[in-house]
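Supplementary Methods, section 5.1.

A reviewer requested that the exact input to the structure prediction be made available. We therefore reproduce it here, unchanged from the version used in the analyses.
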Amino acid sequence: MLEFIVCFMAGLGAGLGTGFAGMSAAAVISPMLITFLGMPAYEAVGIALASDVLASAVSAYTYGKNKNLDIRNGLVMMVTVLLCTLFGSWVASLVPNTTMGSFSVFMTFLLGIKFILKPVMTTKESMEAVSGRKRIVQSVLSGIVVGFICGFIGAGGGMMMLLLLTGILGYELKTAVGTSVFIMAFTAFTGAASHFAIGGMPDVWCLLLCVASTLLWARIAAKFANKASAATLNRATGVVLTVLGGVILAVNYLR
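The structure derived from this sequence is encoded token-by-token as follows.
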């Protein structure tokens, strides 16, 4: 019973974070499985990444169906992120252990407050006014930053992408989230496949529960987000990120 409750609640938080803000499920599911079920960290991360694949994919489909997805620049950023994640992981293996992983959680909390106090009100018209060449260059540079940080720290990809897409590339919020989850579907699949190949299959029951719960809530959140006004979406995203960031910080404190 405890396993069902923990997996369902972890999926709920991860799904809302993914559907509303393009947040990686690993940031929510991993600490909850480790803290409350005593699961080995490597196995927990594998389950979280696997949960992220379908949740991000169905969210990307929903955003794309509503024309809130930039596939061309998303593909450019995705390739750069994957390559630089490998490089960041290699660099991280050469330096002493770091505690920077908590940075991504704290960033989630701060980003949530930012969306509440200073919402992203960029319009699609102003976003599309940027030249295609400039946008590709921005996508490559952003992918380098996100990929390296993900590989070096091991977390924070979804949040870093959302921050760069809205703050640097000037995306309006819905397109930023749609593009972020599109990229995360591929990066999560790569991560999950490598985890399962190296560590073997995790607890299948826990895996299925987390995948199903994350997928359900991501679908609900994505549908709501695409119908909401910019102001409502900013507030909802801010509340979700702030609450999730605070809960994850509390969970990490209990570990």
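The mean pLDDT is 82. These observations are discussed further in the main text.
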